[in-house]
């Protein structure tokens, strides 16, 4: 091994710096980095985009569920990139219409990760992902179902749900990360990604058999719906997330995190924005659900609450349904309202 390394190091530097770009995956990258000081320095100098591409090549092994994990890790960067200009926003919306896989392709093209990011993500499997997956399982998964007399009073929120808790966690995290920049823009009085873009994310990146046309709402036969509604997979992800967001088991720890920063707003519209804004911190924000996990976030949340308190009331339109069945939502990203908009056709709306 030492002889092989010495032979490699004898190559010109302008060739050595190209080696990381010809590795198969992140494991090969780590192996090269650990070989010697010179290769460690070379690997340390590569672009974050290359590290993301190496991680993507290993995503089915080390970043499951694929591609949700790495999309959640990079979606915030895409949200900021999309707000740079109209062309980027259009490119994002086109990608969203083709589903989570195309969004992943866009992340690989435009975003990046450092090795510190990779280590943080791998640690999050044990500190965030596993505990929060268990919480969601108690909201809508096997633990929720596994109660005596489920349909006869065992659960006050009993209904038919087909939920994969870990996937639901990442879908909620991706929404928060992708539209985090939009939330910031709205709080500062600027335009973020519009409602149509946010609904496209839910329609096509969280596909659902219940997501169907109704008056004022259209689902294109593209992406996960290209083969027809009967072939949509997964079948109930939007509806499952709606159930999770309404679950007392889910709401209680979030309420505890918010209470560290002050009482609820008396204004229902401000309160709705506040509840949603706390949720919209991406994968890392789920740390708030751990015991004492919100302590590290308190200063940030206090600043967030102050911004919401200062919002011009004229920019907080109430959610209303008009006679044609169309819905006018708040301009701020609120996942619970937007999920309802997407599954509302199951109840029939004319």
Helix/strand order, N-terminal first: HHHHHHHHHHHHHHHHHHHHEEH
Question: How would the global form be characterised?
Answer: globular
Helix percentage: 55-70%
CA radius of gyration: 22 Å
Query: Count of DSSP helices?
Result: 21
Count the strands? 2
**Largest beta sheet, briefly?**
2 strands, antiparallel
Unreliable parts: 319-326
* Quaternary state of the chains: single chain
How large a portion of the residues is in β-strands, by DSSP E? under 5%
Structural class: mainly alpha
Distance between the termini: 71 Å
> Overall pLDDT, averaged?
88
Q: Strands of the biggest beta sheet: in what spatial order?
A: 1-2
Could you characterize what this model shows?
Helix content is 59%, strand content 1%. It has helices at residues 2-9, 13-16, 26-33, 37-44, 48-57, 59-62, 68-82, 86-96, 100-110, 115-140, 142-145, 150-154, 165-178, 180-187, 195-205, 237-246, 248-259, 268-279, 282-285, 298-309, 335-343; strands spanning 320-321, 327-328. Strands 1-2 form a two-stranded antiparallel sheet. Helix 10 (115-140) packs across helix 13, helix 16 (237-246) packs across helix 21 and helix 18 (268-279) runs antiparallel to helix 20. It is globular. Mean pLDDT is 88; it is low at 319-326.
């Amino acid at each position: 091994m030492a002889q092989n390394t010495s032979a490699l190091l004898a190559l010109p530097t302008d060739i050595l710096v190209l080696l990381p770009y010809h590795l198969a995956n992140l494991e090969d990258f780590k192996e090269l980095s650990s070989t010697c000081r010179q290769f460690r320095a070379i690997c340390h100098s590569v672009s974050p985009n290359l590290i993301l591409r190496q991680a993507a090549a290993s995503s089915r092994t080390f970043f499951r569920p694929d591609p949700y994990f790495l999309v959640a890790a990079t979606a915030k960067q895409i949200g900021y990139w999309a707000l740079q200009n109209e062309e980027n926003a259009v490119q994002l919306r086109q990608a969203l219409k083709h589903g989570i896989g195309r969004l992943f392709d866009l992340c690989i093209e435009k975003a990046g990760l450092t090795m510190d990011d990779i280590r943080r993500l791998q640690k999050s499997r044990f500190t965030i992902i596993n505990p929060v997956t268990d919480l969601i399982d108690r909201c809508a998964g096997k633990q929720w179902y596994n109660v005596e007399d489920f349909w006869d009073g065992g659960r006050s929120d009993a209904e038919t749900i087909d939920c994969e808790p870990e996937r639901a966690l990442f879908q909620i995290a991706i929404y928060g990360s992708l539209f985090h920049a939009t939330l910031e823009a709205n709080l500062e009085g600027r335009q973020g990604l519009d409602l149509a873009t946010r609904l496209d994310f839910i329609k096509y990146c969280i596909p659902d058999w219940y997501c169907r046309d109704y008056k004022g709402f259209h689902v294109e036969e593209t992406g996960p719906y290209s083969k027809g509604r009967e072939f949509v997979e997964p079948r109930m992800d939007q509806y499952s997330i709606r159930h999770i967001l309404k679950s007392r088991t889910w709401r209680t720890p979030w309420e505890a995190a918010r209470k560290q920063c002050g009482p609820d707003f008396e204004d229902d519209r401000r309160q709705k924005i506040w509840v949603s804004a706390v949720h919209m911190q991406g994968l890392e924000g789920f740390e708030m659900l751990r015991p004492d996990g919100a302590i590290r976030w308190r200063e940030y949340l206090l600043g967030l609450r102050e911004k919401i308190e200062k919002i011009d009331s004229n920019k907080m339109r109430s959610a209303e349904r008009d006679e044609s069945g169309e819905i006018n939502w708040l301009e701020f990203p609120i996942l619970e309202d937007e999920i309802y908009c997407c599954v509302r056709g199951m109840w029939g709306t004319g």
